[in-house]
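It is worth pausing here to work through a concrete case rather than discussing structure prediction in the abstract. The textbook approach is simple: state the sequence, then state the predicted structure, then interpret. We follow exactly that order.
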Amino acid sequence: MKLAKTLGELKETGYIPRSTRDELRGNLLDKIKLGKPRFTGIIGFDRSVLPQIENAILSRHSIILLGLRGQAKTRIARQLVNLLDEYIPIIKGSRLNESPFGPISLKYKQLADEAGDDLELEWLHREDRYNEKLATPDVSVADLIGDLDPIKAVRDKLDLSDEEVIHWGIIPRTNRGVFAINELPDLQPRIQVSLLNILEENDIQIRGFPLRVPLDMMFVFTANPEDYTNRGNIITPLKDRISSQINTHYPRNVSEAKKITQQEAWSDRPVKIEIPEIIKDIIELTAFEARESEYVDQTSGVSARLPISAYENLISNIERRAAANNEDDYYPRICDLYSVISSIVGKVELVYEGELEGPTIVAVNLIGEAVKRTFLKFFPKPRKDAPEMSGKTQSGNVYEPVIDYFSSGRRLELSDEQPYDDYRRALLEISGLDKLITNYYKVEEEREKLLAMELVLEGLHKFNIIAKESPDNRFIYADMIQNILGN
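Step two, the predicted structure:
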């Protein structure tokens, strides 16, 4: 498409200018009618958050996205720019992206009057029409709105009340675009006050000089719930001027959570690493357990970044083992899960009781609870008697051969650094374990069968049927009573 270079050429094309909010509204309606996707990479919000955002855009509202960390708030804000026109015309040289049909600064109003249809144009791509600012306590009015430039006043011999003396801040420079402020409560109240008139009356005061600058933009704010931290709050008058408040949330089920992790995690390694669904489930359940744990501060939230980084560390641990043993076994083990502790301890805020336990112990217990929940999806709940499970009466304890193996005094050592042959040999030594997997976990592939065997051992440990020691990242399973007496 040939883009007009002057206002006269633009008029000849029949171009009709629209405000930013009308652009967003019109293009959104077009995409809805055509059945085109409006937001990409946003999983789990289709029936909750995204319809509310679309309603707000159709209502020409400013928006605040309210939610805990790691809930895709910034990603949503950044995707709003995709609903803008691909290019818009601006007056050439304008720092405020002024429309040739309606300049807003005195300088370009005069230039437009003098040049008429010969007014020179530039074209602004939609990617250049988005700006965002992270709210921090040191953000100033000058950063957001602007300030007087006394050096420029002296150099150009201008009065300080002259509009040309102003050094414009990031908000005016985003005119005719989308502007986002992340973590709005962190913005000092006196700075929040400076936004009030911009949202409603388009009045700006810079160093006591009032200006009426009809800025044309869409405002998006993000914030954690107000009781998340004591760092600050959103002042009531500003909240009142934000037309739509939309609450985000974490994935509501494991299936959605896995899709997010698979989308975001870096898994493009030089070798193909196959991760079975059972391991993916455990990683996601670890985050779900953290969001329910009494040791974790729930007002802080548990970011979706936890399972993403955990998944990446798990893959790396598999890579490291294969390289250390000079073998091509790129398949996970249950003991690999404990290599992701570093992905957990920095992403959960602990309450007082959690601090007493220690972050590493809390992380280990979260993984353990996730393993336990996954174990119960496939195997009967371990008991010393013969319980009924899912309507099926068991003629004895299905775990008896495994328990007998350890009660005879034998111990089993597994490690995330163990060569595959040693790992396989150790698990196959336990009589009855292979048959148990055949009955409850239907799988043909040997490596996944070994994984299921390890899951049984970990499940029995979590139900205090067998003991486990963990010295130096090794996992030694033993009889519970003998382990107690031995200690």
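Step three, interpretation. Residues 386-395 have pLDDT under 50 and may be disordered. The radius of gyration is 31 Å.
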